[in-house]
Amino acid sequence: MDRLVLLVSTGVARGLVIALFALSLVIIWRAARIVNFAQAAMAVMAVYVAFAIEAATGSYLLALLAALVTGALLGVAVERGLMRHVAGRTPMPGMIVAIGLVMVLQSLLGILFGAKHRPMTPVLSESPLYVGGVPVLSRYDLFVLVVALVVVVGLGLLFNRSTLGLQLRASAVAPEVSRLLGVRVPRMVTIGWMLSSAVAALAVLLLVPTELGLNAHSGDVLFVHAFTVAVLGGLDSPAGALLGGVVVGVLVSLVTGYASAGLAPLAVLALLTTVLLVRPGGIFAAKEARTA
Amino acid sequence: MTGIDTRTRSIVLRAAGLTALALAATFALDPFRNYQLAVIAATFCATAGLTLLVGLTGQLSLGHAVLMAAGGYGYALVAGPAAEAGLPGAARFALGLLGAVVISGAVGGLLGLAGARLRGPYLAGLTLALVIALPALATQVPGLGKDQGLGVPFEGVPGLLAGVMVVEQWHAWIAIVVAAVAVTPLVVLRSGRAGLRMRAVHGDEVAARLAGVSPARVKVGAFVVSSVAAGLGGAVLAVVTQNVGPGRYSLAFSLLLLVAVVVGGLGSVGGAAVGAALVVLLPWFVDTLASGLPADLEQRLSGNLAVAVFGALLIAVTVAWPGGLATATAGLRGRAGRRLSRTPPAGGVPSGLPPSEPRPDPRPITER
């Protein structure tokens, strides 16, 4: 029982990181109708910068800020420098360019920093806290939980309660009409990329201390999990991303805890396949069929 | 009907000619070059299948490495016991290929069922998850030999040819013949009614349905055909390397297959051949160049530099030259053909994915 509580609560904390990353995929999908396959590689690059800042200054807060800023700048650079020049109405060219970007970024990181994992110590202790004698979360997990919730609520307020959020949503849904009404649609797309890659960088920064360490491929599994979440919830649904993230996080945690870590990727694949075959529209999607 | 027959016959004749040419060329190559040629031929099976799938039906698969692995495992699982039962080389090889076809076809059919319901990013994500899960699959499913993978029986040079060639050349022969058997049907399909249906579904599903074409059936069929070709490629690779394991079929390799078809030109089988040669030879070339450097630097560059070049190539081709090599050469061929004979170029029009064109395409489907 104790073990179950610990595994579930750890799963929720991990799940919120996955949810954050999935949310970044949702943001970019809603802003630009593209699945950014390069999201993980870009985020890992930003975390390398954060890592260097932390090593130089010793301040975790500065590292956090550096990850966010670098992530946002990378988003702008990729959108302005690359994605804007991809022609076509189908999503395929954009996806292919993003895949090319993954290859370039990951291999550059590999050349610059080598293949070994750089360990990153968590800012707070990782030993579990006890509630009524039952081990629950570690301090670090609690920190992750709080940060993730703050970001999710903040994004919700931004998108649903602010003028900028209204403009972002409008230009994603009806670009031509928005332009007629005076919304600067290209700028909104750029802002969408900024937000999205900053959130992704934050998610990877929160994840790395709980894993082996920082490496060019640190974000790969997170991306696959987040993508699974996006399929579960639908790329259009932020609430679906949040809930799906927690579901996948708990599933991975339970399978790792009760069976073996090797089975976790298979469990995620099985979940993904089941949802696709039984309910291809995603659990939260309103439409019957997905149209990309 | 005679039109179709003559077209099929001309394709088969051309394939036979190219195969004979490739077989003859192996005599001019040293053993290592022949080994590379065999790997290229195996990769060509997969890229030809992938280019058909992506270019004609618009289904982006990032998981063709897994389908190759499925073929390799299928071969090993059948050929290994057959060798223990004492079957002679040819029968064992044929049974192994059958195993490869069955397993890769089954995996491809399942993916195709999912693919018929999903589009663009969702299918790409599913296939990506599959590639990432392959090492776990290989270690967790009993009988797949964990990380080391499975051994594959050695196919030596048969007695008749033993005086003429070494084993590398024989393996190149096997690879070339299997590639011809795998790819020729794809070309026949592509130029015939099935190819037309695929293009119709890719162009506009609703219109295709109104014309009596079932998009789901076409998509699943395309996926199965493409998977079987990739599976045969995987079987050949298993024979040539005498092993099949998860290490070779990483995400990086899967993405290389995509690079090959994009650079070669989506939908073009000739482009897929050029792309296959490129993704096999360029990493080797880069590694050879880097081998003179200090050990630490060489270790960092090895693998990474080639991937960086391929990534840049992928971006550059998609942004600047969306048709790939095939469009460029087809354009030249088309112009030259018109100048010479004033007849429209036959089959020279590149198919699939015209990303820069506005969508309501005024040409009738038959002309695309």
Q: Which key phrases capture this entry?
A:
heterodimer; A: about 290 residues; about 5% strand; B: about 375 residues; mainly alpha; two-stranded antiparallel sheet; 2 strands; membrane (chain B); transmembrane (chain B); transmembrane helix (chain B); LivM-like (chain B)
Strand content of chain B: under 5%
Strand order of the largest sheet of chain A: 1-2
Helices and strands of chain B: which structural class?
mainly alpha
Residue share in helix of chain B = over 70%
Unreliable spans of chain A: 287-292
What is the rounded Rg of chain A? 19 Å
What's the assembly state of these chains? heterodimer
Shape of chain B: globular
Largest sheet of chain A: 2 strands, antiparallel
| Greatest chain-chain contact | A-B, 56 and 52 residues
Structural class of chain A: mainly alpha
Main sheet strand line-up of chain B? 1-2
Task: Tally the beta strands of chain A.
Answer: 2
Sheet of most strands of chain B? 2 strands, antiparallel
Membrane topology (chain B): Multi-pass membrane protein
Transmembrane segments (chain B): 12-29, 35-55, 62-83, 89-113, 120-138, 170-189, 255-285, 305-332
Subcellular location (chain B): Cell membrane
InterPro entries (chain B): ABC_transp_permease, LivM-like
Summed up:
Chain A is mostly helical.
Explained architecture:
The complex is a heterodimer of chains A (292) and B (368). Helices cover 71% and strands 3% of the residues of chain A. Chain A has 292 residues and is mostly helical. The longest helix of chain A has 31 residues, at 2-32. Chain A starts with a helix and ends in a 14-residue tail after the last helix. The model of chain A is unreliable at 287-292 (pLDDT under 50). Helices cover 73% and strands 1% of the residues of chain B. A two-stranded antiparallel sheet of chain B has the order 1-2. In chain B, helix 2 (31-57) crosses helix 11 (269-290), helix 3 packs antiparallel against helix 4 (89-117) and helix 4 (89-117) packs antiparallel against helix 9. Chain B starts with a helix and ends in a 27-residue tail after the last helix. In chain B, 52% of the residues are buried. The interface between A and B is large, with 56 and 52 residues. Chain B: Residues 358-368 have a biased composition (Basic and acidic residues). Chain B: Its main location: membrane. Chain B: Keywords: Cell membrane, Membrane, Transmembrane, Transmembrane helix. Chain B: InterPro entries: ABC_transp_permease (IPR001851), LivM-like (IPR043428). Chain B: Residues 336-368 are annotated as: Disordered.
